[in-house]
Amino acid sequence: MRTGTGPDQPTKGTTMRLTLTNFITLDGVTQSPGAPEEDPSGGFNLGGWLPAHFDEAVGGFVSEIFGRADAFLLGRHTYDLMAAWWPQVTDPADPVATALNGLPKHVATSRTDELTWSGARRLDGDVVKAVTELKNQPGRELQIHGSSALARSLMADGLIDAYHLLVFPVVLGRGRRLFADGVPPAGLKLVDNRTTGSGVALMTYENAGAPVLGTIVE
User: Fold this and answer.
1) pTM (2 decimals)?
2) According to a count of CB atoms within 10 Å of the terminal CB, is the N or C end of the chain lower?
């Protein structure tokens, strides 16, 4: 099922929008979706909750998102996970591999070891300032994938323009969350909504500024 017309496509000559794509459970957990060993930090032993529900429609939605990318912004943990796998995928028909291997990758990291993935570069100096400068460049989307800690650090400055949230029909009860305690209040506008056969909700929200608060009056 799909409602809405989808997010507006930026026109040629506009500056880049910063979008975040995240796999999350119904209770908001983002930790270790792909495999148990992906991120067991903090004693988390419920990793690998994504594969059972990753159907063709989920893959199509992800491919659509990667097709709009002109550059990527990644936290170091996400970069390391991706760099260990995607350079080995050389199929030109794979839209995710083509984008990740061919486009610039800006990595927020305090480590000084070399970034060996082709097209990867370290963000220097203040991350908020560096990301603001990247957004001012011409293009379509500067995309964050995963990288929840980085995303939360950018939410406070209102830098994320849209959220692609893939909500899986799983409740874990523990694990790191994208919208954890302490993130700034925000209003969002739903611009795309689909549901896959495996029960994954595919939602795109635009940043709508501060939340509107009020009282229900009968």
Assistant:
1) 0.89
2) C
